[in-house]
Amino acid sequence: MAASSIDTALQALIERLQPVASSAGYFYPLNGLTGLSGKVVCGQQCWLARRIPHQPIPFISRRREWHLLRGLTASGLAPHALAIDRRWLLLEWLPGETLAEGEFLARQPELVTLLTRLHHQPLSGYRLQLLPLLHHYWQQCRQRNPRWLRRLRQLARQGEPLPLRLGLLHMDIHPGNLLAHPDGLRLIDWEYAADGDIALELAAIISGNGLNAAQRATLLADYACSNRLDLRALKRQVRLWQPWLHLLMASWYQLRWEQSGDSALHQRAIAAWRQI
Questions:
Q1: How many helices (H) and strands (E) does the chain have?
Q2: Can you give the pTM of this predicted structure?
Q3: Spatial CA neighbour of 255 closest among 15, 11, 34
Q4: At residue 35, does pLDDT exceed 60?
């Protein structure tokens, strides 16, 4: 469905930013750190509307998200992309509930299967490179932690690790983005997805979900077995990416706090900078 074919009433509805009833239906803003999505309900039909940010967030591009999801239409991994215009990306609404915290580890075998399928999808053509992204965050933020520039220069001297294996990455996998769909786990919220090193994805899962040593070892061993990778090489590559991810997470929280003024994001930024 092209952007021009979005129903006029529906288009008017999703342009509103608060819960509202109209002749077309209802729009419900959804919780989330980015705060740019809402559920559209019209009769028995539901969609997910994702707004194009008014303030730029490095690497987020609804146009890239649109093309990437269109390429995944037959994969069964993600919601279908239905339409896009200059302000909104419209996706299908997938039935199901996101995972509770305790389910994330309990369903690890399914997660490894999901990751294997994801990382063997055709590449999207959008390459994720962290060094330019980190420089972009540095340039956009007004307040800079004293440790920031020192670590950024250190990583720039080292250079990004050479990929162990390139694959299509989601780059934001946590319980809130894993949907227990009737046909199995699905991934939602693809705004950071791109092509990159599969070890970067695993490092992001470990760091973003606070996995302990035993949980980390199980995840990497299962993934290495499923993907016929040398476990020692995979562990080494994940370690190489960890300082890059720590700086990326701190930079993201810093910028989003400055843009939104959200106190919870401020506290996360403070905690993230303590790890640098």
A1: 10, 11
A2: 0.88
A3: 34
A4: no
